[in-house]
């Protein structure tokens, strides 16, 4: 689950991670009031969307309007707010469709001496969180990783212990941080690592992380993803969820207990098991097709969930065919076959449907489908299924 920058910074402040003062606003008048409350000097107006690259992003139909604007007067704040709120911001991470800006963040300015990068993710190979820092703050980390990977410095840490003092010293030496700034880092870096663990984050990124003129370390950004599987421990965080920033079909799927991610292809995939779903997507690509989604109905899928899965798949105007790839383990093939037949009556299949069943009660399941009046293209294995659905959609 993602949250906005202004929400992340409120959590940072509660956790002892230094941030600047700022106020969220939804109208130009609110933005001006926020500017005056912050002292009426230099302020930064920031579009609030669930995507990075806002500083270099531009408003659709207005290439001169950036998603982050430095303002020196109330009039400039009002103009920036009016140019952002309700408009579509396109960044390197949103794709060409962009995201609508529903609110902005008016933040006090500061004296920036240096800009750094800081990010924390889970390194699954090492089975530990890893803190990554770089001297290249304000630049997309993907660009740094591709062009100058030697400028990214990493330290793994034990989540039960946190980032240790010697690790902070190592990173400060590599970043060229000394004196009072190094002392600030000795508090900042362990605090952000504790935050990552305490809130069950899957990603936490600060770009830029700045060292101010008085050698303090401040988070000038807050891009946070929480592990959705751990939200039962943080029910208060659910209040921060902004459904308007999420794909409606993905929200609908989650409400039915389905794991669904919308993609840009034209072949819908209905699969049980995350690994099998990814393999299905891969083999569709291998045979020249483009998957329209990732969809895992789970091992215990019932007729109601399968029906809803078909509704979601067929609601995508780009979907020109559906591949059902089921390995019957917990969910028997007869259960899935019955669900497909029921779904056909409720939803109605208007695109080619290729079905591959394997596993428990597979012969009975295939017989049920063969004897039904559902228009189905059967497949013997996953390769056969991929070839048939790619051919059917072409």
UniProtKB/TrEMBL annotation:
Keyword list, A-Z: ATP-binding, Ligase, Magnesium, Metal-binding, Nucleotide-binding, Tricarboxylic acid cycle
Keyword Ligase recorded: yes
Cofactor(s) it depends on: Mg(2+)
GO (cellular component) term, any one: succinate-CoA ligase complex
Domain ATP-grasp intervals: 9-55
Residues reported to bind ATP: 46, 53-55, 107, 110, 115
Binding site for Mg(2+): 207, 221
Pathway info: Carbohydrate metabolism; tricarboxylic acid cycle; succinate from succinyl-CoA (ligase route): step 1/1
Bilayer-spanning residue ranges: none
GO BP terms in the entry: succinyl-CoA metabolic process; tricarboxylic acid cycle
An MF annotation (GO) of this entry: succinate-CoA ligase (GDP-forming) activity
Cofactor binding, note field: Binds 1 Mg(2+) ion per subunit.
InterPro entries hit by this protein: ATP-grasp, ATP-grasp_succ-CoA_synth-type, ATP_grasp_subdomain_1, Succ-CoA_synthase_bsu_CS, SUCC_ACL_C, Succ_CoA_ligase-like_bsu, Succinyl-CoA_synth-like
Residues that, per the record, bind substrate: 272, 329-331
Catalyses which reaction(s): succinate + ATP + CoA = succinyl-CoA + ADP + phosphate; GTP + succinate + CoA = succinyl-CoA + GDP + phosphate
EC number of the protein: 6.2.1.5
NCBIfam families named among the record's database cross-references: PRK00696.1, sucCoAbeta
Subunit structure and binding partners: Heterotetramer of two alpha and two beta subunits.
Function: Succinyl-CoA synthetase functions in the citric acid cycle (TCA), coupling the hydrolysis of succinyl-CoA to the synthesis of either ATP or GTP and thus represents the only step of substrate-level phosphorylation in the TCA. The beta subunit provides nucleotide specificity of the enzyme and binds the substrate succinate, while the binding sites for coenzyme A and phosphate are found in the alpha subunit.
Family, per entry: Belongs to the succinate/malate CoA ligase beta subunit family.
Protein name: Succinate--CoA ligase [ADP-forming] subunit beta
Organism field: Rubripirellula amarantea
